[in-house]
Queue: 2 jobs
Job 1
Amino acid sequence: MGIYVPVFYSLEGCLCELKRLSITAPNVVRLYCNSVYVNWKNRNEVAHGKNAKSVSVSAAKIISTAFPISNPLIASWGANLPREFQNIWHPPPPGWMKINVDAALLTSYNAGIGGCFRDDKGRLLIVFGEKRLHWDIATLELDAVMTIRKFIQPWMLEYKEIILEGDNLNVIRFIQNSLNKAKWQSFNRVEENLLFLAEFNKVLFIHVHRNCNRVADMSATLALENNFFFDSSSFDCIPPLTTSILKKECEPLL
């Protein structure tokens, strides 16, 4: 007797089966996902010169963290977990950079866009906000994506892959579709505005829950008042509300 361990031959098959098992056998899903995560983390630690964890230590870690009381899902899972399994911000894979963007709009048409850049350890690289005057939230969120161009620094090109997240599904889908030249020739204006991303080997546009986008949301809200920009030289000036959100999101990573 033992625990049923499914064998998958494709990512699509894996996701479909895990989704099905999450209803009939959620414990298996937790163990499976935790096993993948712990082994992935172990391999990365070895690659960075650290000692490998023994099988017994890894097994204990998998079992002890697979069944959190407060959260039935795996809170420490990385950025590659399917969107429906995420409800908090997660760092990107090692060597990647993640950018979150959002927009805020008042009935007076005063608006703000904002975003933040973070590395694979959850460390803040840049946070920004810009005031706008507009009436359409989708246009503003698209503008937030386009605006990251001015904040890309030369040293950021060391990150060969980036993830760009937003909580407006229509905008993310529009961008994804516009980058498909064969099907969306009429949307090449968007493609041209995103050419700066060609400096990176891979760019993923991902829709996330609002809970995964809190820093960007707060940045957009603060931008209703004034423009701002903070990097490593001015982190001490970051508004307390933003600092509080960052602290809460980073605590599980420590």
Note: Residues 11-77 form one domain.
Job 2
Amino acid sequence: MPALSQKFRPASRTTRYATPTKPAADPAADALVPANTWTPTTTAPSSSTPTAGSDAATTAPAQTLMRRSRALVERGVDTLAEILARYSITALRVALGLVFLGFGVLKFFPGVSPAEDLAQRTIGELTLHLVGPSAALLMTAVIETVIGLTLLTGRFLRAGLVLLAVALVGIMSPLVLFFDELFPAGGPTLTAQYVLKDLILAAAGAVVGAWALGARLRRDA
């Protein structure tokens, strides 16, 4: 049996897709918003974010307080400097006068002053033993008392300062006359320390002397 050739052709199927339609343009919207234009949106600042105005409001009172405090301190310093410049030399003069008056009065009473023996020996060495111990002690007492009174009262101050300069030579001379005795083995004794403290009296006398000669304290601006 002859083979039967059959041709099968599939039925043609045509698939149709709907073409999307473009929505109609809104002329009013196109007129308000240009094409290809991005409009940014603004966000209100958070209440927790500090602003320049709030910082200025916070720092202004602090700066004002600092300025007032600085002005108050400077005013106090100026006042203190003025008081010291006016009264410090007078206070130094009175204190120096009290010291010398006390030293001098004690020497009027034998055996009372701790520097009695040192004063007698020093005057004896300086006068080549022409002045006896009792006279040396009395002379020292008179000189120191006069110095103290002139410094305390301010009367005859220049004459008192001249006496002070002479007395300081005698006061400091034991450092030379009795050096080995005052500094055994290189260390100062109690008597040596007593004499060394008179360096402060000499410096104070120099300051008072400069003031008596017309020098005045001046505060730099």
Note: Residues 1-18, 29-33 have pLDDT under 50 and may be disordered.
